[in-house]
Amino acid sequence: MRGHDHQQADIYSYLSPEQRVRESHPLRKIRAMADEALKNMSERFDSMYAKTGRPSIPPEKLLRAQLIQMLYSVRSERLLMEEIDYSMLFRWFVGMNLDEPVWDVTVFTKNRNRLLEGDVAREFLAEVVRQAESKGLTSDEHFTVVGTLIEAWASLKSFQRKGEKKAPPDDPGNPGNPRVDFHGEKRSNQTHESTSDPDALLARKGNGKEAKLSYNGNALTENRNGLIVNTETLQANGTAERDAALLMLEQIPGTDRVTVGADKGYDTKDFIAECRHLKITPHVAQNVKRNGGSAIDIRTTRHQGYAISQQKRKRIEECFGWMKTIALVRKVRHRGIEKVGWLFTFAAAAYNLVRMRNLLASPVGAA
Hints:
- The protein is 41% helix and 15% strand.
- The protein is α+β, with helices and mostly antiparallel strands.
- The strands form 3 sheets. Strands 1, 6, 7, 8, 9 and 10 form a 6-stranded mixed sheet that branches. It has a two-stranded antiparallel sheet with strand order 2-5.
- The longest helix is centred in the last third of the chain and has 25 residues, at 337-361.
- The N and C termini lie far apart (79 Å).
């Protein structure tokens, strides 16, 4: 039998992630819109790193990774690094080759935290909104405002009397978990504060609901397609929703009269008067049980536009629903009002990108 020399050859096939992600994949449109926004932010990034030099992870890749974390509800940075390492789709979205080593989680977090300190999220949201405006997806006349409670990354056990430096003893049955007895103790934001997140305040969603350490996240949406055009995060102090609403309404460009829809929590004489001072027609739901009655009268409620605003304002709950369940901002993993506000604003931009992708795919999207 004649012997043959068999030469074994390894055949390598190298396809880039770009070639492997199908043209119709829903992430493609999101990545294109995100890239346009990031390209317009390049000057900001250059000025941010002018003195310290370019960081080990480019800010554009960091922000794309943050988007992936929100779009796919990835619970932690450690898990995010693992997902990017294994997933060709995620590598493509972030802008990494298949053989590029994924970042160490500590390095990623350190680099990302530098971005959390600036107005990067606010500028990213503004760039996304500009794209929506250029595509005819937004209204510049009719708006809705609403707030929601965001649970802080701090336990009630950290909510202790101000000025007390002494840490509570550990529970013998559960080391590392402080034993705190609140029985009979009256706690309020005036007398107590969280030792782990002093910016968080005790708040409840309604009468009879459990009080939690929280922040107040607020959004201003336009009424054509329910896109978020501005956000404001404040301490949950009882007047935060109306205060945030006025801050956002003041920033609406132009001098023409506009309308704003809101729920009955905004039906106070001060808020209505301030809206009118700003040349804004307050389409606020009437709170007839309020002392002195509603601050809104028939001069406002008789118009058809008032009924339309009341119908449109319910759409804003879809934004918060997505941000809390998908983008995981129901309970934030950051402490301090600046970082929580950054995360809330970036989640709003992520929501807009998903909504815009769906609207642009629909033949009646811009109608």
